[in-house]
Amino acid sequence: MLIDDALSHHERYRGGKPAMLMGDQVWTYAQLGEMRRRLAGVLLAAGVRPGDRVALLSENTPWFLGALFATVRIGAIFVPLNYRLSGEELSDIVRDASVKVLIAQGRHLKRMQAPRDCTVIALDDVAGVPHIDALLAKATDRPPEVLVSGGDAAMLQYTSGTTAESKGVVSIQSAWVQSCLLQPPLKRFTESTVFLGILPMCYTGGTKSALEVIFAGATIVIVQRFDEEEALDSVERYGVTNAFVVPTMLYRLLDAQAAKPRKLSTLKYINSGGAPLNEARLRQTVALLGCEFTQSYGMTEIAGGSITFAGPEDHFVNGEVSPKLRSVGRPFIDCQIKLVDDDGVEIAQGEPGEVWVKTARALKGYWGKPSSETPISADGYYQTGDIARADEDGYLYIVDRKKDMIISGGLNIYSKEVEAAIERHEAVDAAYVVGAPDPEWGESVLAFVVLHAGKSTTATEIQDWCAAKVGRYKRPRTVVFLTKADIPINWGGKVVKRTLRDNYLEKLRASGAA
Fold first, then answer.
1. Among residues of the chain, what percentage have pLDDT more than 70?
2. What is the pLDDT of residues 3-38, one digit of tens each?
3. Which of 175, 252, 265, 380 has its CA 20 to 30 A from that of 47?
4. pLDDT-derived band of residue 514, with 50, 70 and 90 as boundaries?
5. Which of 237, 226, 315, 318 has its CA nearest to residue 270?
């Protein structure tokens, strides 16, 4: 089976069913099918051949799915570009990927420089650039068939780069098919699902979710850009049943619903990924939104993103908090996971180790990089760079990023453990912990803390609280209070802790205190 086979199936057997909703517009499966066939013809006429790269630069739009399916149908490689990047970053990615055709919104196209040998197609009116509607009107809806196989590259996605520069991840057709057949049933996707597409579709999670909707024969409500008020209104308007969010989005949804309650009775399931949730926010999700909650953990390097899954039963049992609450669940059936030490040797159960995963969905390499730079072990495990513990039932608990681990006086301190302790304080909304240079200990714990509105506390109180929860040597040497607006978020919705640390240290140097 190939990616495009899913759309072809529903186009044939559910052609009149809504596939995409946006505002007052509806695209049925038949209309989405025709869109991708005509666009495939346009791409072929532009000289696109199997293995060539076709990029899309846009906020959330029905064209995303149209372009994705058109591209993979003809054996080309789809490159979703993040519109939140700078013009220079976008230009660098387009050059790095040697993009053959760039489909873009005008306001984003104007911010970058496309190579001369790249064909550009506009999604709106741009002087001197062909409009996609005009090209489709002249295109055939029966383009030539192209031989495509499951082992062909389908996507080139650039990582969000929380710890290093962005890299292009190459994944194949069969890997995406495997993911999109396996995961939707666990996330309670059915043909009657109405999914809220608020995560940018250019993100791995957004791409995955949109594809899962089509594979399930369901309906996606496309929201151009995330806005918590519009998102909640959309749940009410369209009868949304399912959504996927990153924690920063979920927190904004919760605050908006608390301030202005909507009728959200149709909303049954929320899936979260990208970063851990704290216990208080999870309880608030269930209380305010009245839905069940699932959680997944993964990375761009694995097609479909996720390698573990935690269902509603892993969070609450008979209304009580489950002991598995802080876990990210257990591996999907197509993933083998082991935790290893620095020498690649498996560690004892309950001990922290790096997460290694073996799956047919793993990346085939980084675009333009030698194979030696792809972190895959000799026995075929992708080395994630995440530190986790596993319990006796196989549930995984993320401890830290390997690069975020703090070594103080020769002792390992896991930033997420300290963050979780601080976040249990009643005044604290969020905490972000990093290592800071220390002349005596090598590194010391530096905590950035965001308080709940109307709450107050002191650095000393946070330090004493932390010492009681995780031990004195793990308590923050320094506590810095910030607002939500001060927290740097990358385009993947993740907090960039190295920026927090670097900005703080730069201020110290500027003041002469460092």
1. 97
2. 999 999 999 999 999 999 999 999 999 999 999 999
3. 175
4. low
5. 315
Domain edge (last residue) among 282, 316, 350: 316
Contact in structure between 56 and 72 (CB atoms under 8 Å):
no
Q: What is the largest CA-CA distance in the chain?
A: 71
Statement: residue 349 has pLDDT above 90: yes
Residue position matching structure tokens 């089976």: 1
Say if residue 485 is exposed, middle or buried (CB neighbours under 10 Å; 0-12, 13-18, 19+): exposed
**360, part of any domain:** no
Q: What's the number of domains the chain is made of?
A: 2
Distance from CA of residue 82 to its chain's centroid? 12
Give the distance, in angstroms, between the CA of residue 421 and the centroid of all CA atoms in the same chain.
25
8 A C-beta contact, residue 121 and residue 104: yes
Contact between residue 341 and residue 356 where contact means Cβ atoms under 8 Å apart: no
For residue 101, the model assigns a pLDDT of 98
- Does residue 284 belong to any structural domain of this protein? yes
d(CA 383, CA 405): 16
> Residue 290 region, left (φ>0) first, then alpha (ψ -120 to 50), else beta?
left
For Cα atoms 495, 497, 498, give the angle at the middle one, nearest 5 degrees: 135
The domain of 470 spans 405-511
Q: What pLDDT shows up at residue 161?
A: 52
Orientation angle between helical segments 247-259 and 279-289, nearest 10 degrees: 50
Residue 471 pLDDT: 80
Report the pLDDT value the prediction gives residue 166, as an integer from 0 to 100: 77
- Output the pTM of the full model: 0.85
Place of tokens 């594979």: 215
Question: For residue 18, is it within any domain?
Answer: yes
Q: Which tokens go with 421?
A: 């302790």
CA-nearest of 185, 213, 216 to 199 is: 213
| Domain end residue (candidates: 277, 297, 316) | 316
- Tokens 């220390």 locate to 438
Angstrom distance (rounded) from CA 373 to CA 365? 8
